[in-house]
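Weekly structure sync, notes
Attendees: PL (lead), two postdocs, one rotation student
Agenda item 3: pending single-chain targets
PL asked that the sequence for the first pending target be pasted directly into the notes so everyone works from the same version. It is reproduced below exactly as submitted, 247 residues in total.
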Amino acid sequence: MRVADGVEMLEITQEIRGRTATICPALLWDDRDVVLVDAGFPGQLELFRAAMGRAGVPFEKLTRIVITHHDIDHIGSLADIEAAAPGVRVLAAEGDRPYIQGERIPVKMTPEAITRMTAGQPPEQVEERRRAVAEMLKHVPTARVDETFKPGDELPVCGGLVVIATPGHTPDHISLYHRPSRTVISGDALTADNGRLNGPPAAPTLDMPLALRSVRNFAPFDIAAVIAYHGGLVRAGIRERLAEIPG
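Predicted structure, written out during the meeting:
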């Protein structure tokens, strides 16, 4: 879906563990760079290639991949995309680098995180979650990171991408603001439902109070559109909804 000149919201749908899941990575381009934000679930390389083709941007022109955080649905196909697009450079927050590169266990797969995220759930659901994480740990995707950034940096691509600190969903989660189109690429700091902006997803968010406070960090920006990785494009009522989300 075209968001603005040089901005496309990709829509990638696949059955994942028995459920149909749609993710909405962002694609930006100009006469010098083609930038993909986030890299989907494992095994989605060809879906990305096809989605970029539908957007009229050849996969072979990809120059940068920016990662908002290291959850498996955001880095799952990163290594495959790296291998298929020689010369592409991967950018991520410094704190996320060791997780993406496989030097540390993902923050949501530690015993402490599982306990925190399943608090109050029935014992059978907790055990199911533990088994699922144990299985995922056998196949955690890893990839290289070429450059790191910190909140407040402005990446000199596609007219300027401002890095916004939005921790809570994960400790080093970031969002992006594309200056030319006034578009926020929110990762999982925000979600959407039928064009309505919502807060971060409850179940997979490590620190919800912090994640809700992070929503305030969008306030200084003049926002015309939000691309939510889960939920898609929002154009209407953005400032009002940001003010309504408790934080």
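Discussion points:
- Helices lie at 45-54, 72-75, 78-84, 97-100, 111-117, 123-137, 208-214, 238-244.
- Residues 2 and 8 are 5 Å apart (CA to CA).
Action: rotation student to compare against the earlier draft before next sync.
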